[in-house]
Amino acid sequence: VLGIKVKIMLPYGNKEGTGAKKPLPDHISIVQPKDETPIVNPYSEAKERKVEPVISVLLTCII
C-alpha cells in the first residue's frame, strides 16, 4: 500500500477572492520573446586597447 495525499485546489485568483491566496509553486508562465532587429552586416570590435608610448604618459604626469 502506497500512501499518496492529493489536494485539488482552485487556481490562483487574487482579484476574485477565490482560490489559493498564494500562487502554487509549480505554476509555469510562458513569456513571448521580444522582436529582434535583424543584423544587416556582421562586424567585430577591437578588444585590445591602444598602448601609449611611455614618454607621453610621463609628460602627462609631470605637467
From TrEMBL:
Presence of the UniProt keyword Ribosomal protein in the record: yes
InterPro entries: Ribosomal_S3_C_sf
Keyword Transferase attached: no
GO cellular component, one term: ribonucleoprotein complex
Swiss-Prot/TrEMBL keywords: Ribonucleoprotein, Ribosomal protein
Similarity-based family: Belongs to the universal ribosomal protein uS3 family.
Protein name: Ribosomal protein S3
